[in-house]
Specification:
By secondary structure, this protein is α/β, with parallel strands linked by helices. It contains 14 helices and eight strands. Helix 2 crosses helix 5. A four-stranded parallel β-sheet has the order 2-1-3-4, sandwiched between helices. It has a four-stranded parallel β-sheet with strand order 6-5-7-8, sandwiched between helices. It has three domains: 155 residues, Rossmann fold, CATH 3.40.50; 34 residues, no CATH class; 111 residues, 3-Layer(aba) Sandwich (Rossmann fold).
Amino acid sequence: MISFFSALLLLASQASATEIVCTLPWLGDIAHRVAPDAHITTLSRGTDDPHFLSPTPALMARVSAADLYVENGLNLELWSERLLDSAGNPKIRPGQPGYVKATVNMVRLEIPTDLTRAKGDLHPEGNPHVWTDPLNAPVAADNIAAGMSRIDPANAAKYTANAKAFRAKINEAMFGADLVGFMGGDLLARLAQSNKLDEFLASKGLTARLGGWAKKGASLKGKPIIFYHQSWAYFINRFGVKVVGFVEDRPGIPPTAAHRDELLGLIKANNVKVIEVTSFYDPKIPNLLGQQTGAKVAVVAGDVGGTPQATDYFAYIDSLLTAFTQ
């Protein structure tokens, strides 16, 4: 039985815990790894479309009381600015110590050169779905650690160390413990990000020592896949998947009958075996395409918690690779 004094200490520690609000589940998972003693609120769920969110009054109260606000940025959370305006919390506004844009210092893909609504939903700063490439996750951890260090400088070394440990864990999951132990994870990550890893390993006779997600995803290179929405640019870039087409006519625009006919032709011409659909989208059209062509429909998580298998960030990447490779 807990003593009265212990209960007071527990309440005091809970009251003094740093309040972190994250817009997306993957950010909440990484924030917990960087600042495990903080109280973390995630505004959206993995089963939600991150482009659209209407926060409840309870979530609004969390934002109003937050010490740190972490968002993906790149115009993904179009609701975020309105939320911050309503929260009345000046210390977490952009430009303030309590604000973190997790995508700072990440290489961005698909930056449009021609912004027009005729092309559907476009993001002027580039494709925002950065978390589908696991090598982007440590950059987000570094940004969160920097934010925590600004608001809690006394524990800055701890946050930096936790982010470094997370990077090491990602590298080991990506390349396997054997190769990381032999070459170092940071070197492998740099080679992978410059698209030189396979060539380097082959030249050194080290290909057989590659493990982790890189080995699991090797069978996807060049494999044709139909995706539902243009949210997989970073996954495609990392694992070398061949994109044949998208179920949506244009980003955010449902397919017309003519577009569905076009997809049928593409699936047959390219011998597509997999049609992806993120769990929060309606699978009706993908299922219809699958029935007409024999392609399998892979329902995958858009974020941590999007499927029962995607319980944390590491399980999320595992679940993606399992769904696509199977």
